[in-house]
Amino acid sequence: MLVLVLNPGSSSLKYAVWQFDSGNLKASGQEVLRGAVERIGESEVTDHAVALESIVKELSSLLGERKLEAIGHRVVHGGRFTGPVLIDSEVIRYLELLNPLAPLHNVPAVLCIHAATRTWPQVSQVAVFDTSFHRTLPEHVWRYALPQGLCRQYGIRRYGFHGISVEHVGQRAARMLGIPWEKFDGVIAHLGNGASVTAVHGGQSVDTSMGFTPLEGLVMGTRSGDVDPGILIFLLRQGLCAEELDNLLNRDSGLKALAGDNDMRTITTSAATGDKDAQLALETAAHRLVRYIGGYHVTCGGANAIVLTGGIGENSAPFRTRVLEKLAPLGVKIDPVVNETVVGLKEARVVSAPESSIPVLVVPTDEQAAIAKATVAVVSTQ
Ligand code: AMP
Predict the structure, then answer these.
(1) Which end of the chain is more exposed for a tag (fewer CB within 10 A), N or C?
(2) What does the entry list as the binding residues for substrate (predicted)?
C-alpha cells in the first residue's frame, strides 16, 4: 500500500510517500521519498493548494505507474476527535469550524484536504490530529477556571498540541532506555518554531503547555506563549481589534518580538557577538521552558527522561546547554562534548552526563512516519 503524507505548516508543505506491505500492514513500512515546498505565500507559490499542485507533478514523475492508495493529513486541531479519522464531508465541515482556533495550521490543512480530494477523488484520506494524544489529560488539567456554561458553549478547554511528535519521540526514548511505553514517565519538549512541553505518565499525556489554541505556554518563534490575559483586555480597551490581537500574539511576538528574528541560528549568532536583545530572548525562552520542565517533572511522578526534539531541540547545542544548566538543582548534568556533536542526526542520543539524575535524550521527530502508520491503521480497518 502506497501512502502519501501531507504535513502543512504555516508557510511550508512537507510531504512523504510510504510503502507498506499489503500482506502485513502492521509491519513498520518504509519511506519511499520525502520533500517540502517552503516559503508558501512569499513566492509564486501563493497558497497550499498551489504547493500541492507542484507536489502532484513531482509525484507523477517519481511514482510512474504506482498508484496511491491512501493519503494521511496532519491536522493540528482535532477538537472533539480523540484519534485519527477517515475524512468525509462531515469531517471537513467540522474541521472548518475549528479553523479560527489554529489559524496558522488548520486553514492550510483544510486547503490540502480539498485540493487532494479534487486530485485523487477515489483515494481514502485520513486526518491525524496533534490534539489526540492529549485525550488522556485529567479534567483538573484540561479545565480552565472559567464559568462552565461558557466553556461548554464554545468548547473552551485545554486541548494540547504536538501530540503526533510527542508520542513518536516518547516511544523512541522509552525503547532506547528499555522501559515499556506503558511504564514510561517523562517530560517531552518539542522545540521548533512552535514549541510545547508535555508531561507523560505511564505513556499517557497528563499535562501539556499548549491549551485551547497553540498559543499558550512557551516563548515560541513568533508566538507569545503565556501572557497575563489582563494585557488583552487592556489592549482591547486601547482600541485594538480581534484581528490585530491575533496577529500580535501569533505572528509578531515570541523570539521575533524579543530579538527581531525568529530563527534560532540567527539569534544564537547575534547573542554570541554581544547583541543584548538576542541574549535576553534566549534567556527568556530558556527560563520559561525550565519553569515548565521543573513543574512537569513533579506532574509526571518523577521523570525517567527529559526528551528534546524539534528543529531547536535537535540542533541547537547552545540552547540545550542554556536550558540544561538551569536544571542543575534537579541533579541534571549535561555532557558538553556529546551535546556539541548532536546536530541534525537521524538517530537518538543521550546528551546528559552518566551522573545526571535524569537522562536527557535528543530524539529526532518524524511526524510523517507517525502519520503514515496511523493512516494505514485506519484504512486497513475499513
Ligand atoms: P521546526 O519548526 O521544528 O522546523 O524548527 C524551526 C527552528 O529550528 C528554527 O528556530 C530554526 O532556527 C531552528 N533550527 C533549525 N536548524 C538549526 C540549527 N542547525 N541550529 C540551531 N537552530 C536550528
Answers:
(1) C
(2) 74
Mean per-residue pLDDT, 349-360:
98
The rounded mean pLDDT for the chain is 95
111 in the same domain as 209: no
Q: Are residues 120 and 167 in the same domain?
A: no
From 45, 42, 53, 59, select the one nearest 4 (Cα to Cα). Answer: 59
The finding on whether 310 has its CB within 6 A of some atom of ligand 1 is: yes
Name the residue of 105, 168, 188, 264 whose CB sits within 8 Å of the most ligand 1 atoms, as the mutation to test its pocket.
264
Instruction: Please tell me the distance between residue 315's alpha carbon and the centre of ligand 1 in angstroms.
Output: 7
Q: How confident is the model at residue 25 (pLDDT cuts 50, 70, 90)?
A: low
Residues spanned by the domain of 217: 163-362
Give the residue from 129, 144, 172 where a domain finishes: 129
Q: Is the CB of 193 under 6 A from ligand 1?
A: yes
Residue 105 binned pLDDT confidence (cut-offs 50, 70, 90) = confident
For the question of residue 21 being annotated catalytic, the response is no
**3-state secondary structure at position 307:** strand
pTM of the model: 0.94
Cell of 188: 517531552
CATH number at residue 123: 3.30.420.40
CA distances from 302 to 137, 209, 290, 295, 349 (A): 17, 18, 15, 10, 21
